[in-house]
């Protein structure tokens, strides 16, 4: 086991994370990690990109092309990195994450933030009923089993802007038809986090000391979250809170929308049924998404990890997010075609064929 304190490290040890690698640095979430890390001026940020990738990267990020099917390519790109952040799309091959983890261990990377940015995985009841991302316990165990790398997993709940505008499956907002569906009475609260807050959290974490100086040092360090969840959030809010914010941001009123209510349990079961009966991958995923998102708004309160686990926001010095400001940002994303862009970049060719057939 590595020494716990900086004082016990060999000569030349620098007690900070300076070199960070990101898989998916040009993606929906990864770009915010890259931008915020660069802003600190404390890190060299390297993006592992597929050969031939045309992803736009933040200024100051160094791109290293890799082949995820060639371990030597990955190991070479990860040599000397101190922290690896993995963000992969849902369409990535299931074995890709494992290939990256194994390569990181062979390259000697001490910390990995795995491709899990969702709800409270320590909540066994929730994980047993989570139909979209599942329980990441096997991923964490694989990282620990390397004997080289440790994991730090970001628990951020739902991504606020993304979930608000993508469509009725997510938070009940059908923007195209101006129809709002509240789960139960729409007042159950869950934790949601903005893209920016996720980025700020990673940058703040990796700007801490890596290890305590000695036994008397109780300040937060990167190692404080070694093989643990990092709970962060922007808001603990209900659907009705979001709807009120949307109306303030747009000037709309209840009269502009058709408002409906659906029992959360019934919606969950409907999603499960769709997932199990669907004959195409896209419909299966949409059924799973329907079930997974409404599950966080069950009256059992499983979407609210803030009240039971606490947050790392204060320890990391994160600012308070402004709800209406973030909602206005989501509205701008909607107006600029964010939804169409998401589906065009994340759906597989098979998915697009299925959508065209259904039309």
UniProtKB/TrEMBL annotation:
Q: Which residues form the signal peptide?
A: none
Q: What UniProt keywords apply to this chain's record, in alphabetical order?
A: NADP, Oxidoreductase
GO MF annotations in UniProt: oxidoreductase activity
Tell me which InterPro entries the record gives: NAD(P)-bd_dom_sf, NmrA-like, NmrA/Isoflavone_reductase-like
Q: Which residues form the NmrA-like domain?
A: 19-120
Would you tell me the protein name for this molecule? NmrA-like domain-containing protein
Q: State the species of origin.
A: Chaetomium strumarium
Upper lineage is: Eukaryota, Fungi, Dikarya, Ascomycota, Pezizomycotina
């Amino acid at each position: 086991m590595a020494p716990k304190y900086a004082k016990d490290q060999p000569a030349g040890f620098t007690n900070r994370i300076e070199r960070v690698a990101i898989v998916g640095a040009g993606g929906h979430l990864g770009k915010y990690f890259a931008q915020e890390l660069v802003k600190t001026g404390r890190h060299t940020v390297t993006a592992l990109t597929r050969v031939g990738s045309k992803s736009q990267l933040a200024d100051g990020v160094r791109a290293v092309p890799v082949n995820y099917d060639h371990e030597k390519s990955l190991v070479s790109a990860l040599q000397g990195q101190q922290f690896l952040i993995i963000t992969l799309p849902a369409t990535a091959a299931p074995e890709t994450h494992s290939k990256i983890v194994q390569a990181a261990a062979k390259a000697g990377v001490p910390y990995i933030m795995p491709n899990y940015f969702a709800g409270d995985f320590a909540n066994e009841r929730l994980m047993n009923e989570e139909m979209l991302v599942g329980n990441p316990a096997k991923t964490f165990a694989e990282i620990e089993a390397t004997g080289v790398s440790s994991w730090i997993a970001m628990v951020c709940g739902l991504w606020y802007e993304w979930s608000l505008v993508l469509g009725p499956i997510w938070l009940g907002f059908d923007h195209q038809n101006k129809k709002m569906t509240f789960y139960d009475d729409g007042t159950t609260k869950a934790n949601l986090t903005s893209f920016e807050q996720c980025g700020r959290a990673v940058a703040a974490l990796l700007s801490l000391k890596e290890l305590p100086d000695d036994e008397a040092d109780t300040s937060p360090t990167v190692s404080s979250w070694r093989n643990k969840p990092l709970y962060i959030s922007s808001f603990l809010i209900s659907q009705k809170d979001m709807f009120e914010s949307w109306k303030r941001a747009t000037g709309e009123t209840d009269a502009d929308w058709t408002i409906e209510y659906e029992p959360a349990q019934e919606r969950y079961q409907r999603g499960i049924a769709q997932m199990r009966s669907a004959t195409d991958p896209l419909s299966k995923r949409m059924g799973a998404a329907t079930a997974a998102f409404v599950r966080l708004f069950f009256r059992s309160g499983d979407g609210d990890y803030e009240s039971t686990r606490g947050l790392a926001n204060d320890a990391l010095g994160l600012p308070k997010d402004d709800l209406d400001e973030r909602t206005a940002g989501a509205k701008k994303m909607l107006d600029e075609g964010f939804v169409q862009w998401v589906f065009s970049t994340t759906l597989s060719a098979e998915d697009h064929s299925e959508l065209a057939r259904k039309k």
